[in-house]
Amino acid sequence: MLIVQKYGGTSVANTERIKAVARRVVRTADEGHRVVVVVSAMAGETDNLIRLAHEVSPNPGEREMDLLLSSGERVTTALTAMAVQALGKKAIALTGRQMGIITEPVHTKARIERIEADRAKRALDEGYIVVVAGFQGITESDEVTTLGRGGSDLTAVAIAAALKADLCEIYTDVDGVYTTDPNIVPEARKLDKISYEEMLELASLGAKVLQTRSVEFAMKYNVPVVVRSSFNDNPGTLVTKEDKEMEKVVVSGVAYDKNQSKITIKAVPDRPGIAARLFKAIADANIVVDMIVQNVSSDGRATDISFTVAKTDSNKALSITEAIARELGASGVDLREDIAKVSIVGVGMRTHSGVAAKMFETLARHGINIMAISTSEIKVSCLIEAKYTELAVRVLHDAFELAKAEGEK
Ligand code: ADP
Ligand code: ASP
Ligand code: MG
Predict the structure, then answer these.
(1) Which of 93, 225, 247, 364 would you label with 127, given CA atoms 20 to 30 Å apart?
(2) How many other CB atoms are there within 10 angstroms of residue 217's CB atom?
(3) What is the rounded distance in angstroms from the CA atom of residue 21 to the CA atom of residue 38?
(4) Distance 72 CA to ligand 3 centre (A)
């Protein structure tokens, strides 16, 4: 088989762990498989580099930021290849450019356009274990880009798709995908398998165990993904196509996201075209808006519009909104950072009613106020005060009996 193995930051946090990764890689090769390894930067390294950038500049340029951030994965890629070589196997370390990962010309969150994998294929044919730097790519005009936080997952899945690998293994610091973050709810249960769709919702709603775009990519190209621990040999979680069994489960997971901010533009005139004007300007700045709430005031003439964006975009979104507020004669703009989004996800929601009501009741019973709600076919999300996040996740996990397997409920 051809197997792509991705090792996250905690799995390559120091040289001892890198040597442990090398042993696992060699074991896989010795079982007769061809192996491509994708590594993240050492745990904390990307955050550290971002901190350094902000120490030298209040507003670091995105092009140089990408060059800086890509250095973290260069280090672990070279070290991992050396550790594999030290075990007597042929290994070659490749940067994003050398792997032929071509992205769109957007800095800090580029999408992969295609992979020119000839060199990697040749190396595999010659018996090399190929070790690739995650999270980075190159544009047509030779600029280094990065793929957004957690982007090494995407590197791995995209390479698996390009090489038509039989399996993409994501090695991390937990045993698989759980009903919610096991570091917050110790009773959380590991799932044997989860559908691409549910995983996509969980990821986009904050479950950082897999990066959202990596799941999108896996779903599109039907890449079988297994999430498992690099610290043991326990079977992980298979992310795969939905089956009949999965539909029986109404809610399969709870996710939370503290990386959002809420911006409110106050008392804008209540007439057609206002929302279009505001959200076009935000979209033109490459900012993704998540939740939107609009309240018509009692006199019917003015309205408040609130929306949420990623915290990393909040300053940019705020200055755009302030400019538009002046143009429209709004009474002011307000930014709140102390908010969080909690969500429940499950394909079974399509065929079961009362799920949202149960969520609202549960939050109300614990005195947690809901600031905004959004729903889709398979999820319900509520915006709440950040200080209630852990409490909300725990009580929802409990209310939907997620610690128990289907048969035990
Ligand atoms: P890596 O560095 O290996 O990429 P991440 O920190 O990005 O690892 O992702 C793993 C973390 O995701 C876990 O330590 C856990 O805290 C968090 N997490 C959030 N939700 C879930 C979930 N539903 N199942 C498993 N882990 C989750
Ligand atoms: N090192 C990058 C990050 O911390 C990419 C990754 O770990 O997947 O976001
Ligand atoms: Mg990650």
Answers:
(1) 225
(2) 22
(3) 11
(4) 14
pTM, two decimal places: 0.93
**Which residue, among 68, 66, 7, 67, has the nearest Cα to 42 in the 3D structure?**
7
Residue 375's pLDDT is 92
Q: What is the CATH number of the domain that holds 25?
A: 3.40.1160.10
CA distance 49 to 106: 19
Same domain, 23 and 112: yes
Mean pLDDT (the chain) is 95
- Alpha helices (H) in 274-313, listed in sequence order: 274-284
Q: Whose CA is nearest to atom 11 of ligand 1?
A: 209
Q: Which helix (H) or strand (E) holds 401?
A: none
Residue type, 41: A
Tens of pLDDT, residue by residue over 205-222, are: 999 999 999 999 999 999
* Residue 127 token pair: 């018996």
Q: Is 150 in the pocket of ligand 2 (CB under 6 A)?
A: yes
Indicate whether residue 209 lines ligand 1 (CB < 6 A).
Answer: yes
- Boundary residue ending a domain (133, 151, 173): 173
pLDDT digits (tens, 9 = 90+) for 139-172: 999 999 999 999 999 999 999 999 999 999 999 9
pLDDT for position 290: 93
- Within-domain flag for 185: no
Q: Is 135 in the pocket of ligand 2 (CB under 6 A)?
A: yes
List of the chain residues with pLDDT < 50: none
Q: What are the E-state strand segments in 224-320?
A: 225-229, 237-240, 253-257, 260-269, 289-296, 302-310
Give the pLDDT confidence score for residue 329 in this predicted structure.
Answer: 87
CATH of the domain at 281: 3.30.2130.10
* Domain count of the fold of the chain: 2
Q: Does the Cβ of 8 fall within 6 Å of ligand 1?
A: yes
Closest CA to 160 of 108, 219, 91, 93: 219
* Assigned token pair, 110: 């580029």
Q: Which domain holds residue 305?
A: 254-404
Q: Whose CA is nearest to atom 25 of ligand 1?
A: 177
DSSP string spanning 73-130? Answer: HHHHHHHHHHHHHHTT--EEEE-HHHHTEEE-S-SSSPPEEEE--HHHHHHHHTTPEE
